[in-house]
Structures are given as C-alpha cells and as structure tokens.
Amino acid sequence: MTAQTPSSPPFRDPQLPTAKRIDDLLSRLTLDERVAFLHQFAPAVERLGIAAFRTGQEALHGVAWMGPATVFPQAVGLGATWNEELVHRVGEAVSKEVRAMRARDDRVGLNVWAPTVNLLRHPLWGRNEEGYSEDPKLTSAIATAYTRGLRGDHPAYWRTAPVLKHWLAHNNETNRDTTSSSVRPRVLHEYDLRAFRETVEAGAVAGVMPAYNLVNGRPNHVSPLLGEHLRTWTDTDLLVCSDAAAPSNLVDSEHYFDTHEEATAAALIAGVDSFTDHGTDSTKIIARLQGALSQGLLTEEDIDRAVRRQLSVRFRLGEFDPQYDPYADTKDFDTPAHRALAQEAAEQAIVLLKNDDATLPLAPDTRIAVVGLLADECKADWYSGTLIHRSTPLEALYERFGAERVEFAEGVDRVRLRTSTGTFLHVPPAEDAPDVARGAEGALDPALLAGRTDLPPLTAEAEGTEFALIDWGEGVLTLRAPDGRYLSVAEDGYVRASADQPGGWVVQETFRLEPQNYPDSTNSAENHHHLLRHVGTGRHVSVAADGVKVADEKETPPEIFELIVTERGEESVKRVAARADVVVVVAGNDPHINGRETEDRATLHLPAHQERLLRAARAANPRTILTLTSAYPYAVDVTDLPAALWTAHGGQAAGTALARVLAGDVSPAGRLPQTWYAADADLPDLLDYDVIGSRQTYLYFEGTPLFPFGHGLSYATFAYGDLTAEVADEETLRVSFTVANTGYVTADEVAQLYTRAPESPVTRPRRELVAHRRVTLSPGESATMSFELPLSCLEFWDVGSNGRRLAPGSYELLAGASSEDIRARTTVQVTGTPSVPRPVRRLGLSAADFDEQSGAEIVDRTKVSGDAVTPTGDGEAELLYRDCDFGAGVTEVAVTTAGEGAVEVEVVLDDRAATAVLTPTPTGGPYDYTTGRAALVVDGVRDVRVRLRGPLRLAHVGFSG
Description:
The chain is an alpha+beta fold. It is 20% helix and 28% strand. A six-stranded mixed β-sheet has the order 1-2-4-5-7-10. It has a six-stranded mixed β-sheet with strand order 11-29-28-27-12-14, with helices on both faces. Strands 19-18-15-26-23-22 form a six-stranded antiparallel β-sheet. The mean pLDDT is 96.
C-alpha cells in the first residue's frame, strides 16, 4: 500500500486503522450531513467526494428485484439440503452477481438484506419460505454458511455486507405490526436468540434488521435486547437497519409513542442506525431526527454513534479504497458455474418422503403421465430475481425420458363466463403486444410496479373465451387465457389478460366467485351464477361499453356471471393417468397466493382442487407419485400412494433437478428442515410463541407427525454403528460414529446427532440436534463422523439463577437418519452445576421468570426496559415459581403492579398452603406502578403460585420480615 498523498485526508489513507479513518471522516461531516446519512438512502457529499449509499439489497436466494439474475432454491429449500458447504458456495455466487450487477447498475446495493434466520416455529406462517429450519442449530449453521459466502474471504474487505432478518420472535403476518410475541426467558435464550447469536458470533454478519412485531409488549425497533445481547456478541460494529415503514409504525399503527420525534429518538437510542421509511424520500426522517435534536431527545453523540456504524460497513466494502478492493472487478454473472450450482442446489434440496416397494427411481422405458397445476410451472416468489433460465417438471421429463413417453394434463377447470345478456367474457387478440415478464427491468421497490395497460381490456362477445380456472384454496382463484396470460387488473381498473404469472406486493391476478340467488335457479346446489370479486381491489367485475373492469358499484353495477364448466380438471387427469405406467402428480402452492409476506395460511391441507386431481389420478392408476412443490409443509394423506417427494420452489433448475431424481441420476438426500404435522389440530395458535409450554416443533411435540424433522429417504440404505461419546475436558464433548452405505448406488446420507436430558429437573426437548454432516458414500463405503462439541450444548436457561446452567446427570447421545429414526445411542455422565434455590428473601421474584404459566402473557414493564406479566385478555393467569428459598422465614409479601386487579400469592407448605390476597391501589396507566403489601408467614424452600385477576401488570413479588 502507498501512503496518502499530501492532498488526501486521513480517511482516504488505507494504512490507518479503520477507527481513525472513521473519526476523521466524522469530523469533516456537518451535523446536517450526518443526520441525512441515517435514512436508507444516504446522499452523496460531493465536497468530500463521498458517493451516495443505500442499505438494503434483497438477496435471499439470488439477487432480487433488480431484474434478471441466477435464481437458487428458496431459503427453506436451501435449509433442506442440510449442506453448509453447498450453501456457502451459493452465498459466494449470489454476492458475485451482486457485485457484477452493481458494476452496470448503481441501484444495486452491497448491503444485502439476507439471510432470514427467523425459526420456522409454525408452518402456517406466511413467510415460511424465507427461513431455513424450525431448529436453531440447523438455522444458524446454514445462515453462517450463507453469510460467509456473501462476505467473501478477504481479511479486511467484504464482497457484500449481510444483514440478518428479522429480529426477533417473528412468525406471523396477521397484524404483524401490532401483535406482541410473548416470549418467556427460556424460550428467548434457548430458542429465538440462538439462531441470531451463533450466526453473529461466526463473524460474517454486518448487521441485523428488527422485525415489525412487538416482543413482550415492546416494539422490536426499540428493543433493549439490541444492546443487551446483539451488540455483546461481536466486537465488530453492527449496522441495525429498520424494516420498511417500521419507524412510522411506532406512532401510526402501534401507538407506542405520541410523536414521531419521540419514536425516532427512542429507536436510534435503542440501536437502530438506518431508517427505512418513505421509500427514497428522506425528508421526513431527517425532519424527525432534527426535531428530536432540537427537543433534547437526542444528542450529537447519538447521531455519531449510528453514523459510525454505517461508515464501518462502507469501509469494509472497500468504498473508500477502490484501488485495493479485491472484489471491485467481479464480473461473474449467469456463468455456467452458477447455472450448474443452481441445479446442484435444487437436486440436493429434494426430499424423498415415501418410497414403497422401490417405486422410484423410474425405469428408462417408463410411460409417464405428468399432471397437476405445477407440472409445467417454474414459480418465482417475492424475493426472487427475474428468471433468466427456467425448467419445469414437464419440460425436464420430456428431455429425460423422451416426449413420446410423457403425456401431460394440467388439471385446470375449463370454464366460460356468461353475462346476464347472454354474451361471454372475451379476450381480444393482441398479436403485436410484447411478451414482458414482471420485474424484468428491476425496481428499488417492486411494490410500485404498475400493471400493463398496453393490452386491450376484456370485452363481452357472442362466442367468448375459454379460461383455465385454478382454485388455490380458501376460495381464491386465478383465470388464465389460452395464450397463457392471467387475467389481471391495472391501475386504470380494466381487466386484461396481461400477466405472465400472479405476483406483486398486492396480487392483481386473483378473484373470488360469490354465489348469487338467481331467478332461473331452482336448486341452490346447481346455482352457477356468481359475482366475480377482484381480490386486489376488493371490487366486483362489471361489464361496460368500453370493456370489462372493476369499478365503484355506485357508478357501474356488478355483473352476475353464469359459470359454465366445459371440462373438470380431473377428467383430463383420468384420461392420461389410465394410459401411463406411472403418474407423477405435481402439486403445491403459488408463492404469491395463500401464504406469503403479509398473509398467513389458514390450514395445512392441500387445496381441494389439487386433492381432487390427486385422488382422480390415484383412482385411474395406483402407481401415482405425489411431488409437492411448495414453500411450506402440507398435511396430505399419502397412505395409498406408493411414493411421495417434497421440494421447495427450486429456482431456475427446479424441473431438471426433479427429473434427475425421478430417473435415478441423483439419489435424493434432502431432509425436512421442519416437522410436517398430520393435521391442523396438532398446531397451537399461530400467536403462541411458547414452544415449551405449547409443545411446539420437534423439540417438544408429543404427538405423531406426518413426517418428522430430519426425515428423508434415499435410493441407498445406510447402517450406523460404533457410537462413542466422552467428556474430554471441562468444556468439550467428543462424539463419533460410523455410517456405511449398505445399498447398491452412490448416495448422500445426512447423519444427525441429537441429545436428550432424561434426568432434567425442568422440561427439556425430547431430543435436540447438536450436529449433522452430509456425506457422499459409494456402495460398501463407510465413514466416521467425528464431532467435538462444546459442553455448553447441553445447557439450559435456568430462570432461578437468570443464566445458563449445565445440570449434572446423564445425557443421551442419539445418532440417526432423522429425529425419529435413531440408529444408535449412548450415554455420558456430566458433573455440571447443581441447582440452587431462588434467593427470594433477598431478590424476590421477577414476574416473567416463572417456571410454568397458564393464561398469562409477558408485557413491557416500561417503554425502555423490563418485563411484567398480565392475564391474557384481562382474565385470570397463574404463575408457578419452583424452589424458592425463604431462609429462616418471612412475614410479608409485596407486589409491584400497574393497572387494576387482584394478586393471590400461595406458598405450598408441608401440610397446608399459606395464602395472601392483595388488591393494590389501582393506577392510571400501564406504566404507573404501585406496591401492595400483605402478611405472609413462610420459611424454607417452597414452590410459589401467583394468580392474577383483572387487567393488571405484575412486575415483581418481594418478601421481607
């Protein structure tokens, strides 16, 4: 390196420590310039030669939103590979394409908002596709691999700067900006924080994005956990970027603060460094920050702290040292290597769920019927780039088995829509219209992309058009014209056949049929007359002289259509199924419909339309194979099917990957990254975040799953043996076992290692993943799986001591092919640290540190910090605190409460219960606390039960006397 020239300032000198360079640059920026840096779109400072900078390039499984790019499998599919080495290479490829795209389009940012490390706690969460797993260990392993790939391997400069999403306990889209996740301390430390912590500690994370929701009554964007935990996990400056519009939500929807100046100041002080709000318009955030400064809510030091964190990231990205940036000339984009990697990832993500009688792989001369709504689809999702290449199952099976051996039936319902005047909806010809894919031009905010208006609107004609109707479940349907374009509504309100696929922030291609009583209908069961409601606008379709449109019903009355079904989808499926040796039914979801960002799913069940097709195929041909292509699990009965597979939407090479697995060119080795439950009844409420109390995920679920966590079959068979485990020193657990391929084909096996604490004094996981390894073995080959694990992997969060503790006793080590397919087990003895009774006479009880609860939720004690407990819905709640040490005795109990209600404190003695009922003086607000006292005579070590009645918050229970 060369020293700075006499005319260049110190911040341009690469020989100086980064901290000194940042100090120098900060000193040269005016206060107004520093404030402006805190919006997502930081402006250029031309007098210093500093370019504009933006946070937030989406890159979840490829570069998103900025036009064509390599599209890899969805994140949940990458999780299903259980392969960190592969995911690391995917991260490398994605970051190289970010760099290459930025070289020709400076709208592409280097601060990438990926990966999502929210745990897949509940399979009805709309954004299930974005996470890796329900397990924190697997999630952090995959996320660490991806972030390391995104970062690059240079010791000083980063190829891109990854930001983890979404901090914290965020698994619902329903009212996501106003709901609060009640997260007890054990769940917080053993579950929700873990995926973030282990990924941050690995050293390739540049920042974190808080989630829209509240945790324990406090918005994530003002969470003290950002300072108390996140920033303690690394010495590197982390850039905390708000989610879009979340700063405004603090006032507008959450009503947590009275003014935007208060809210913005609180978020900045809590740790938010970059405000994503009002799109590219930074004026509102700047005004709020300046207002907060003038009101004394912020200091210049607060501003500088956040700007310093942003500058730290920019220095790491080489912005100020372009001559030394090793990634500046990266041009790898849509390379043969990236295409091959996309195919490899798609192949490794496929999970063989069932394979009776070696139904798969298929023989080369098999006659195949390929049926289903996704059989000729290669779907993208909200966080996909525009597909450059696309491979559908049908196309790939044609290529692999020969078109003469493959027959296709999509299974759509063919319909015509007749108006009340006897005419039919008609798609006018548009021969000269260009074929445009949505988002091909790229956009900083694809939610703002407008629908096409260059095509003619639908009309009503004597003949009309036959449409392909697909019912995606919950009454939501799409209508497709014969040329493959979907009916869509643009901003002008007209209905056109204009969309290549359903999509967009507000999907404009979905409709609902609303049955209507009609004078000619004599039997309601045969009533085919409907209003057609456009879901995106909420308006009904009407027919006007200038075309078909959705309009204000005060202006144009809605049309009542007669739905004429010319062919049911199952009829075409039956025909081709009966002629084939085997039927491949490709079912699943469209990633933009019924389960996506902003919309949770209502059920685990496959939509009725697809169930009809599956049953029709099975009735016509018993050799029916179900292939589920979906962003989430389904509860589907496969009892009478010989084989079934699942894959997430596999990106550009999805079809090729599936065909190669079906043909046996690749032995499937994907493993389920989350539990597949058998029925909706197995699920807790979506907003119940207490995975321990409600027995959620494979860790605690006590029922029988449809398919367990870690499940996945192979075309080979594997044997496990020689499991040994020893506590090597005070901090290390050494485990090894062998895996042998006892089959006849080379295949991958995913060896999984779990622990179990059978002697635990508290509820612990039924089993918990601590290590795994994906290994390729040829027939007859064996390999030794050796792991050195920190003994801390056996710890739990002890609410009594407010810290992690390794309990003494025996621990089981379980090796196998899934969480329920255990092939070998052994036990180790651990000395650990014995439990100590809670010193309640000295410290009392923090209300949220309960061992068990019913009917309670945790809320914020103040707007800044602390927790309290309140009954759910202002009803009644009970809290249990075990092993409370009252020493020689106490004579009084004191409760700290806000609101109005009663508190009953019961201590179980040897032959009776000592009880005190307190009715503290009501307070005016949720943060106005008072203390109520009552007599209570107790000694020794006892369990304490606290019952709450009414709309009050309990913060603390103290004992004295």
